[in-house]
User: Which sequence fits this backbone?
């Protein structure tokens, strides 16, 4: 008989991470926001480990490290550091074509974080969230798929609102 306990535990961790992120974005204190994102990403990484998706877990753990260190360090090579670990893990652990999606999603999210124009940030995040959504559905990370869908909707609405404001001028 198939043991579904790891699957349900993974979905529970994803739900806890989603609640933490929702609460975190209601806070205006940047330090607390980044701490909440660190905790949330640690839960999501463990979620992927329980689902047997090591490459996705490493990518998310690096995002957690990024949120921990990025506010404190202003080093130009920092985005490359955060992107290199998932590249190495993908090369070492590659098993199937879908294993590339977390790497690509991480690329757009990491480099979107370091953009100065809000529209470029949102476009990068929209693409990254879309790639994570595809991967989440494939990996049966159902709660995370819903979270990514809401993130995509939020980013798309931001871009549409910005576009309509520019047309009025």
Assistant:
């Amino acid at each position: 008989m198939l043991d579904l306990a790891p699957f349900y535990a993974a979905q529970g961790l994803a739900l806890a991470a989603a609640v933490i992120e929702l609460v975190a974005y209601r806070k205006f204190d940047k330090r607390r926001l980044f701490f909440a994102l660190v905790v949330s990403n640690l839960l999501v990484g463990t979620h992927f480990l329980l689902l047997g998706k090591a490459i996705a877990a490493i990518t998310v753990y690096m995002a957690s490290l990024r949120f921990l260190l990025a506010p404190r360090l202003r080093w130009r090579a920092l985005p490359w550091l955060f992107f290199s670990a998932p590249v190495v893990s993908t090369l070492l652990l590659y098993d199937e074509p879908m294993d590339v999606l977390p790497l690509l999603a991480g690329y757009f999210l990491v480099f979107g974080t370091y953009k100065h124009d809000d529209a470029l940030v949102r476009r990068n995040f929209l693409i990254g969230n879309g790639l994570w959504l595809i991967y989440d559905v494939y990996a049966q990370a159902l709660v995370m798929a819903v979270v990514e869908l809401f993130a995509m909707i939020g980013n798309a609405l931001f871009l549409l609102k910005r576009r309509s404001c520019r047309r009025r001028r």
User: Anything to note?
Assistant: Helices lie at 5-26, 30-50, 54-69, 78-93, 100-113, 118-138, 142-168. The radius of gyration is 16 Å. The mean pLDDT is 83.
